[in-house]
Amino acid sequence: MRTVVEPDVNGLLPTVESMSQLRHRPLARWLFAVPLVALLVADLTGCGSSGDGKASPAAGTNSNKEVSPAGDIPDTQTYVPFTFTAGHITVKVPEGWGRSEAGGAVRFSDRFNAVELSSTAKPTAPSLASARQDEVAVLKASVAGFAGPKVSTATRPAGSVVLITYQADSPKDPVTGKSTRLAVERYEYWKNGTETIVTVSGPVGADNVDPWKTVTGSVAWT
Prior knowledge:
Radius of gyration: 35 Å
Strand content: 25-35%
CATH topology of the largest domain: Protein Transport Mog1p, Chain A
CATH superfamily of the largest domain: Mog1/PsbP, alpha/beta/alpha sandwich
Number of helices: 4
Number of strands: 10
Structural class: alpha+beta
Strand order of the largest sheet: 3-4-5-9-8-7-6
Distance between the termini: 105 Å
Order of helices and strands: HHEEEEEHEEEEHE
Largest sheet: 7 strands, antiparallel
Helix content: 10-25%
Mean pLDDT: 81
CATH architecture of the largest domain: 3-Layer(aba) Sandwich
């Protein structure tokens, strides 16, 4: 015989107690279990999502964490003084960056951002004319992907400097084999027969104006 669960005289569905009296009947047990399963599924689903249907952030994560765009040096970057003996200067460089030396030059780098220090003996101070005629030609012959050179002057606490800006290709990534296009700024300082060059570089489009001013503005003769 089929058992049908109907409302009582007050129009209400049977209570759990009254339903328990029907559990020995197969159909009654099924009707009793379905609503409970549905409630459990709904409760578990609600725990994993927010009211608007979007997944809630995992516990312990910070959705407001600031992330710098690729190539941008963070505003929180700290700088430490470094004495470049060969160039007779002290300069502030980003703390924590990797350091390497080759051919008398010192390089500090973090991914595609870099600060490079070099020096050479030069009897006279560099000029706009000498930079355009001599140094741009040397850079064109020695720098991969050299393009768009511009020569100007800039004023820094250490004095007036010749500034050469250009674009170049970074060394190829050992994993991907790809190069990144770099924006390069070459600052040429001179004093008492020594030309000291501070070159800063980073990915094209990165906003590193302030970090590069911090570095080049900290140069002081020793």
